[in-house]
Amino acid sequence: MGEQYRVDLHELDSVVRKLKGLQGDMDDPGQKVKYGTKVPKSAFGSNFNEAADIAAAHDEMQNYMSQVVDALQDLIKDFGEKAERSRGAYEDREQDARSSMKS
């Protein structure tokens, strides 16, 4: 006899809701990294040789952090969409099983 399995659809709903909330929460850090950490090049000074290097390092780090936040947001979105599709597939499977039992 085949093994039976049961999926808690409410738990999958909870995961999807939490991921959507997390995705929304990530908007603020994403905006801060891109726009709230801008430092004008003049703030690093201009009367010494390393000023341009410091400014370039800042820009490089800001770009890197922006890419990290974007990648994290994409990962959360992708996982949320997959969890939502899985939930729908399990629900469809349950509906099919109920329908076949009635026949």
What is the H/E string?
HHH
Helicity level, as a percent range?
over 70%
Largest sheet: none
Estimate the mean pLDDT confidence. Answer: 86
Report on this model:
This protein is mainly alpha-helical. The chain has a domain at 27-97. It contains 3 helices and no strands. It has helices at residues 9-25, 27-35, 51-102.
Which descriptors apply to this entry?
103 residues; 3 helices; single chain
Could you give a short description of this structure?
The chain is mostly helical. The protein has 3 helices and no strands. It has a domain at 27-97.
Topology:
Layout: H1 9-25, H2 27-35, H3 51-102
Helix pairs in contact: 1-3, 2-3
